[in-house]
Amino acid sequence: MQSAQTIGIDLPLKVLVWQDAEGNTWLSYNDPAWIARRHGLGPDAEATVKTLSAALNAVTAVAAGSP
Questions:
Q1: From CA 49, how far away is CA 67, in angstroms rounded?
Q2: Is there a contact between 11 and 41 (Cβ–Cβ < 8 Å)?
Q3: How confident is the model at residue 1, as a pLDDT?
Q4: In the 8-state DSSP scheme, what is residue 17?
Q5: In whole angstroms, what is the distance from residue 16 CA to residue 27 CA?
Q6: Adjacent-strand bridge partners of 26
């Protein structure tokens, strides 16, 4: 938020768990890289964005039952 205070509208990061009409369960979230681009963050935020992306991928993989 120090680089672009507007990013606060997209924080904290969140994951939506929802079920479609066929009964399939889905996990959805906005990719941190997309959020960073949306708010004009530069290369100085790249390491943080990669860390957040990896964390969300890991959490959702476990929640989805993937190894």
A1: 23
A2: no
A3: 63
A4: E
A5: 6
A6: 18
Partners of 17 in the beta sheet?
27
pTM equals: 0.85
Q: Give the whole-angstrom CA distance, residue 43 versus residue 56.
A: 20
| Phi, psi at 15, each rounded to 5° | -120, 130
Residue type, 55: A
Q: What is the pLDDT of residues 10-59, one digit of tens each?
A: 999 999 999 999 999 999 999 999 999 999 999 999 999 999 999 999 99
CA distance 46 to 19: 33
Q: What is the DSSP string of 19-36?
A: E-TTS-EEEE---HHHHH
User: What residues does each domain of the chain span?
Assistant: 5-63
In angstroms, rounded to a whole number, what is the distance separating the alpha carbons of residues 14 and 56? 9
Query: 56, 64 in Cβ contact below 8 A?
Result: no
